Amino acid sequence: MLDTSNPNNYSYQTNHLLIDILGGIRLNHLDRLRVTISIKKVKDHHKLRHNLDLYNDNQVEKLVRNTAERLEIGTSIVRRCLQELINELENYRIQELEQEEANQITTKELTTGEKKEAITFLKTKDLLKKTNELIGDSGVIGEVNNRLLMYLIFTSRKANNPLHCISLGSSGAGKTHLQSKVSELIPQEDKVEITVLSENAFYYFNRTELQNKLILIEDLDGAESVLYPLRELQTKRRITKTVVHKDTRGNTKTIHLTVEGPVSVSGCTTKEQIYEDNSNRSFLLYIDESAEQDERIMQYQRKISAGKVNIEREIQAKGTLQNIQRCLTTVTVRNPYAEVLKIPNEVFKPRRTNAHYLQFIEAVTFYHQHQREKLYDTQTGEEYIETTIGDIQEANKLLSEILLRKSDTISGACRDYFEVLKAHLQKEHQTTFSNKQISFMLRIPLSTVKRYHLQLINTQRIQLREKDKTGRHLYEITDYKEYQELKKTIVTVLDEAITKLNDSTEA
Known about the structure:
- The chain has 507 residues and is α/β, with parallel strands linked by helices.
- The protein contains 16 helices and 18 strands.
- The chain has helices at residues 57-71, 75-103, 112-122, 127-137, 144-155, 175-183, 227-236, 276-279, 291-305, 311-326, 350-367, 389-407, 412-428, 435-442, 446-458, 482-506, and strands spanning 2-3, 9-13, 17-22, 34-41, 47-53, 165-168, 191-194, 213-217, 238-246, 252-260, 263-269, 283-286, 332-334, 375-376, 383-386, 432-433, 462-467, 473-477.
- Strands 1-2-3-4-5 form a 5-stranded antiparallel β-sheet, covered by helices on one side. Strands 7-8-11-6-12 form a 5-stranded parallel β-sheet, sandwiched between helices.
- Helix 4 (127-137) crosses helix 10.
- The radius of gyration is 30 Å and the shape is globular.
- The chain starts with a strand and ends with a helix.
- 28% of the residues are buried.
């Protein structure tokens, strides 16, 4: 009997011989059966090891003679055992290939009723608001802005200019959970989930296997080796690797492995600064770590434990959103108002951010495709839909926080800490504070507090006031309203563009 329970060492035992297949067998290349084999007599410690192709008669016959001579056993017995082993390995390989084929994800064909329901939903008024409500019904708790942003970014995988996102937050804040829950709203056949991949793994996908797919990375720390090809896929929409390959005759030749996009990439990390090259290409979604969000999640957990969550309703909402995704088709989006739009001057790296801003507006228009008239280019005949002022307004509402973060001179984690610090000091009617005091009051490690304070001192948001009687440094905040003023500036710039567009339309 062939025992394949250990994938790295198959074993085959007869009355006379014990044969091990070291490293298993390859399921592809059905024209060969190359193995590393170990043969010994039952109840004997002396082994014969050999590497050969079991479909090569000359190699098999040579192994038969060597085994018979070295192990002092008849050639007919060895030959029969090897033939039985080959038959077992063939049957096992065919079964595995059939199982692999059965497990392959197939695209679901919508029924007439499902398609009609999805398209009717896509034609409803206040589509984004109702979509957000449906996302909540599917079991995504809180994160009202982030969950809709993420859903639209995931939807953009089907558009000509896909978007990407990175979820940021401290350990245990719910980054991976949010990504996982929203990704459940995307059809299984449209996504690739990654935990760990080797450096060259991306180059061995089929040429078009990743086209218009959503690539989900659970933790960027576990996928560092593939971040470079991922960046290339994001920017250039294709990756190519040149490798040396031997054909069946043993001739060496150079081949090019090409994998084509576009793709939409989503990942999670606690290390905002380390993945700067990737974050420059992505929308940064900062997880809500407030006490209110903690309470919302814990209350949901209590309801699940009490059996008061309508699981059927959640499953139905997920199915509806997946069907909505299946009813969206790739179509070109043109924004006739693009030349009037501008991002705030305070935004860092404005070139890339401006491109992201325009692409997100396209993503909002793309999601509304069933509410847009199909237009055709008079010169090329290309079909396209046009962005409306309403699409721009919706995009501005969702992106104001993103643009605010991209305009800030401190990191997102430091900003969240600074706003909590401000609220605490105002509540306690305090003007000065020390590192140790804040560490104790806010229950944050002292080393973390010192790191944040160093960043705040360097950006002149806090300053050294004096030393107390014990010699501790006391700090004070230089401006409590700086963040609100920055937010007001960004909203004003976005609103002015909308006003200008409305005035030009009315004129």
